[in-house]
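haha ok so turns out i had the wrong file open the whole time. this is the CORRECT one, sorry everyone. sequence first:
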Amino acid sequence: MDLKRLRILRELSDRGTVGATAEAMDVTPSAVSQQLKTLQDELGVILVEKSGRGVRLTEAGRAMASAAAEVSTAMARAEATIDTYRRGWQTHVTAAFFPSAAEMFLPGLLHRVKAIDGLTFEARFEDPGVAGFAALAADYDVVLAHSVDGPEVFARQGLVVVPLLNEPLDVALPAGHVLAAKPSLTARDVVGFPWMGVPEGFPFDTVLRQIEAKAGSAAMRAQLFPDLRVLEALVSAGHGLSLLPRYTASKNQERGFVLRPLTGVTARRSIVALARPDVAARTTIRQVLSMLEAEAASIDAAGVRDV
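then structure:
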């Protein structure tokens, strides 16, 4: 069934004459008559009949004209939807968060994304090693990643990289530890104590290796866990030291640990948002990335105030 012929039938229903229909469609009256005849032949029913010097719709014609109006409405909606996507809009965004990024960003970000009418934002848990973050961009619109080697690690992957936070990593000590009285710590201060570390390949292990290099001796990795809350619990229970991100750990010090800055070693993690270039170019994704930047600025300002 040709959509143009259905539109002619609808126009005839609205305008009443072949001449008025032809003028509205910018065609000749004979072209209107020919298209109506072809439509009748396709459907196998009579749609128009003579009425005096003109024509009128039959009952079948009126029913088809009504259906043609519904088809036109549906097509207009479809065209509007396609036009929306051509402008880069989408109604569903997926994002991957590693645990502490979800803890920091999600509560505020979900308030912000409500400003995008009709948007469904789906956050999912992913916690690979540094080398695994880039591959996640094939499965998600936005990926939050972190590294102690700076954002450049991810820029080499051919992705759009949006820097969000440069978060200090502090040494976590049991509240009554002998080193807790010191305002800051060096690699030599801490290397000789048991460490609650993370598995190899996770960002914080790189900093512990820097501590070992700076101190000139190996650290004892007593336990290895990739979960920050577990590390906090182990330190609070007196089992050893750990490296914890300042903004996410500082509010949990009432659990029984304290944080002290580390000097002489680059102890920071870069938190970034990753996206494929074609995805990052979409209007909705650009808005979400901007919201992540705004949320990061709020987190950074609050973290500085709390230090």
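The longest helix spans residues 59-86.
again sry for the mixup
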